[in-house]
């Protein structure tokens, strides 16, 4: 059954601000605010390089820089390397469940620990997350397609992976984990599990968000070959070109 909702879309752009990814660059974002976004429209926007957080869809609209490249892993043709298989074996006792996005004290505690950890490790700016903010970022706008993959070691929640299920694969929205379990390489493991899920459903792509060559927090995505890069910034009925 297809969505029959005609959503109201509010479009706007930000002013130029300091770029979070590259020094000495300015960033400007284009936004669409969409309540009750139909699954088909969500698919189309992801394929055209938009990223969803809550009811907000965004993509870069920078006048002097084009370094944010939308990247999608060709999961159907992905071959697990020896290192990948080692990471999977290391997590042989890790279990997961897939469900609608939720919020709990455990979610918020792990989220806070993760961002404090990344503040020290990579210099991320830290913003305290409140229940309302978490809801607006990760629960709002999920519709029928938004899910969370919860990872457990024993009975303990150790990681949360927010994704959208698409007609042709998965859109990876956000992932965070408990730094106490860093030795399990949960970030890489979650991507391998996404790849396996896509293979199991006989789909093809994992839309991994933006790849920025000179940004350490984003250039790791280049490791997951084969992949394609969105070559244009399509609008309206313009075709998206992935190569």
Low-confidence stretches: none
Strand order of the largest sheet: 8-9-10-11-12-7-13
| Count of helical regions | 5
Question: Number of DSSP strands?
Answer: 13
- The CATH topology of the largest domain is Aminopeptidase
Our count of domains comes out at 2
Task: Explain the overall architecture.
This protein has 243 residues and is α+β, with helices and mostly antiparallel strands. The protein contains five helices and 13 strands.
Question: What's this entry about, in short?
Answer:
This protein is of the alpha+beta class and 243 residues long. The protein is built from 5 helices and 13 strands. The strands form 3 sheets. It has a 7-stranded mixed sheet with strand order 8-9-10-11-12-7-13, with helices on both faces. A 4-stranded antiparallel sheet has the order 1-4-6-5. Strands 2-3 form a two-stranded antiparallel ribbon.
Task: Describe the protein's topology.
Elements: E1 9-13, E2 17-18, E3 26-27, E4 29-34, H1 39-47, E5 51-53, E6 56-60, E7 69-74, H2 82-90, E8 94-99, H3 105-122, H4 131-139, E9 146-153, E10 156-165, E11 169-177, H5 186-200, E12 205-211, E13 227-229
Parallel strand pairs: 11-12
Antiparallel strand pairs: 1-4, 2-3, 4-6, 5-6, 7-12, 7-13, 8-9, 9-10, 10-11
